[in-house]
């Protein structure tokens, strides 16, 4: 059982304020301080330091936080496994980003269910940021994400590599057919919401060219990829997305890929779980099962 002082430490990490952590935990601020001092003495390290009036983790404190989050996740997973053994069934909780959940995962998930009739799965669809937070809190066992993540905090395997492209509607009219990314700045852009992997890849790609989303003529946002594709098909603007997410529309001529000379972007879809989890082999077994069943993976 995880020491209760670990939970206090993790709450302080979340709040970066002893008083706010005390309120969240419904204990006194001196009790929070006592818990932190006990951990520092027990492990022989200093966990926090003050930078002016701002509380921050020390380098060793950050290492301890990373390990503590894995401990917390593993304890919750262990409790789930024990309950499953009592009931005689297995259940996995995992998450996927919208593109992966809608366009990459369904075939593999269907094959997994057929091959494992004694196992139940619960899949949550959310953006990369939310999924990593759910993973850190032990709400899901693993996640499949398209966005960036701190590799020092997670173990991971590359699930597939996908082309990231610019598209427009079949009949969309340009004053001049675009050849490079900057030629598109005079067009309305339709994007996913901030925090989504699809949006983040675009922002990073633009940043590398000293550009930003605000440089486009207009910027419309939608959290639904299906809506974005419909808007683009109707000639409301252009968008950037994974080719896998528009495979059918490109095949049927509803959308058109823009061949840009300076935009050869390929990005990984990644299967992630907490770093150094004692249940890593469980997650690797699931990864291997899903991966071999997916016709679109590398």
Automatic annotation (TrEMBL):
Annotated ranges, domain HTH lysR-type: 8-58
Pfam families given in the database record: HTH_1 (PF00126), LysR_substrate (PF03466)
InterPro entries referenced in this protein's UniProt entry, alphabetically: LysR_HTH_N, LysR_subst-bd, WH-like_DNA-bd_sf, WH_DNA-bd_sf
Domain of life per record: Bacteria
Keyword Cytoplasm among UniProt keywords: no
Keywords: DNA-binding, Transcription, Transcription regulation
Family, similarity comment: Belongs to the LysR transcriptional regulatory family.
UniProt-recorded name of the protein: LysR family transcriptional regulator
Organism: Anaerostipes hominis
